[in-house]
Design a protein that fits this description.
The complex is a heterodimer. By secondary structure, chain A is α+β, with helices and mostly antiparallel strands. Helix content of chain A is 31%, strand content 27%. Chain A is elongated. Chain B starts with 5 loop residues before the first helix and ends with a helix. Classes of the chains: A alpha+beta, B mainly alpha. At the A-B interface, helix 1, helix 3, helix 4 and helix 5 of A face helix 2, helix 3, helix 4, helix 6 and helix 8 of B. Chain B: GO terms for molecular function: DNA binding; sigma factor activity. Chain B: Pfam families: Sigma70_r2, Sigma70_r4. Chain B: One of its GO terms (biological process) is DNA-templated transcription initiation.
Chain lengths: 252, 181
């Protein structure tokens, strides 16, 4: 075995220096043994991958990834549409590519975990867009950034609901992002009410009028630190106090 | 609808076709996610890995051509490299990250169960190898250690490491072929 043959594993694992890598590639051209061994290692990749158990895909992964990818090269092709007629509070289903497309106009300036990407995608694709743009006319889209994340967490539910919430600030306004899935069907006239909770006091802060999946950004009402977010089913929006049982909640 | 080959979708994508990107993404989403997860054991990191992969492909920082074999093997190689880079990066991170990571998107209970299941099933695929072969596959494929590190860790001469790895790979290949049948 030649000296270079020892570099096979390190070549495969990408741990060689550039010079050693080039030298090994030159060696590969002349060493059938290494060539074959490398081929065997590469050929095993697909059967190994296919033999793995399937993992549940995180909600919204596709739109986050495609948003980032498309946004990485295609900036500035189209002007950002400020959805002026839309209210700042809105919930919606986002088709993955639409979400990705609406996001790709923007350069992301938040350092990112996944939740922040969701927030960025949502804020930019929802009506909150209009809010941010109107607040900051002099420096549009590119300047978008969350100023501070105040808290985040996953909902715990007495039913099937899954999802997460994040409280963040932008230009001194606090916002709550919620992303939910498996919301049980609602009866006619019912809605999901979101409550922000400070100490023991709930405050109605956003309504979702659909089941299944929903994602929304709501400006936070009032001041002070939000300790938790809860969801109840209510007959009317924005009641003084919850009348239904809490179906999901998250401590922040 | 006529099903296009990965290779032709890839070329369409490289000429800027977003639809082709989406088709390829959809096709490989599950495979890449389980694969990345086998390295990171973490949803958020797996997602970061996959994002990195598509970012590289879309921006032409890596280039596929048919000399490199099948598209599927190629994209898995890219994914594996990105996953190993991610593991190396994470290793250098201060431990403060860990808390946030574990508090990620997964539902805690399901996650625990899932991890247990995954561990069992994954071992199952490699389990029939001899213990020293299992260890080698783990260290080479999923930890990406250098040959020197493996040699030190297993107390084997460098040359022997390569031979042993090769026979472990061939044994695993046989097992996996047997499973497919």
């Amino acid at each position: 075995m030649e000296e270079r043959c020892h570099d096979l594993i390190d070549y495969f694992n990408g741990t060689l220096s550039a010079a050693d890598r080039d030298a090994f590639e030159a060696h590969l051209a002349t060493c059938d043994d290494c060539k074959q061994a490398l081929q065997e290692m590469q050929d095993l990749m697909l059967p190994i991958a296919e033999s793995l158990p399937e993992r549940p895909i995180p909600t919204g992964m596709k739109s986050r990834i495609l948003g980032e990818v498309l946004g990485s090269t295609k900036q500035g092709q189209k002007p950002v549409q400020a959805a002026v007629e839309k209210p700042a509070v809105e919930e919606t289903h986002l088709s993955d590519l639409d979400a990705a497309r609406s996001k790709k106009e923007k350069k992301r300036s938040v350092p990112l975990g996944w939740l922040m990407s969701i927030a960025a995608a949502l804020i930019l694709s929802l009506g909150a867009n209009a809010y941010f743009l109107s607040q900051d006319e002099s420096s549009p889209a590119e300047e978008f950034a969350m100023d501070e994340v105040k808290g985040m967490g996953n909902f715990e539910s007495t039913t099937s609901i899954k999802g997460s919430s994040m409280i963040f600030t932008k230009d001194d306004q606090e916002f709550m992002l919620v992303q939910l899935k498996d919301l049980p069907p609602l009866k006619k006239g019912e809605l999901y009410q979101l409550w922000t909770i400070q100490g023991d006091t709930p405050r109605a802060n956003g309504v979702i009028e659909q089941d299944g999946e929903a994602a929304a950004v709501f400006p936070i009402k009032g001041d002070g630190t939000i300790d938790a977010v809860a969801i109840t089913v209510e007959p009317e929006p924005d009641l003084e106090k919850p009348t239904g049982e809490v179906v999901a909640s998250v401590a922040l | 609808m006529h099903t296009q080959s990965d290779e032709s979708l890839y070329h369409q994508m490289r000429s800027g076709d977003e639809q082709a990107l989406e088709v390829l993404y959809d096709k490989y989403e599950r495979l890449l996610f389980s694969f990345a997860h086998r390295f990171t054991n973490n949803d958020r990191l797996s997602e970061e890995v996959i994002q990195e992969v598509w970012m590289k492909i879309w921006n032409g920082r890596v280039d596929f051509n048919t000399d490199k074999g099948k598209f599927s093997s190629w994209i898995l190689t890219i994914t594996r490299n990105a996953a190993l880079d991610c593991l190396r990066r994470e290793k250098r991170q201060p431990t403060i990250e860990v808390e946030e990571r574990d508090g990620g998107y997964d539902e805690p209970v399901e996650r625990t169960v899932m991890q247990r299941e995954t561990a069992t099933e994954v071992r199952d695929a490699v389990n029939e190898l001899k213990p020293d072969q299992q260890e080698l596959i783990e260290l080479v494929y999923f930890k990406g250690l250098t040959q020197q590190q493996i040699s030190d860790q297993l107390n084997l001469p460098l040359g022997t490491v390569k031979t042993r790895i090769r026979s472990a790979i061939q044994a695993l290949r046989k097992l996996l072929d047997g499973r497919e049948r």
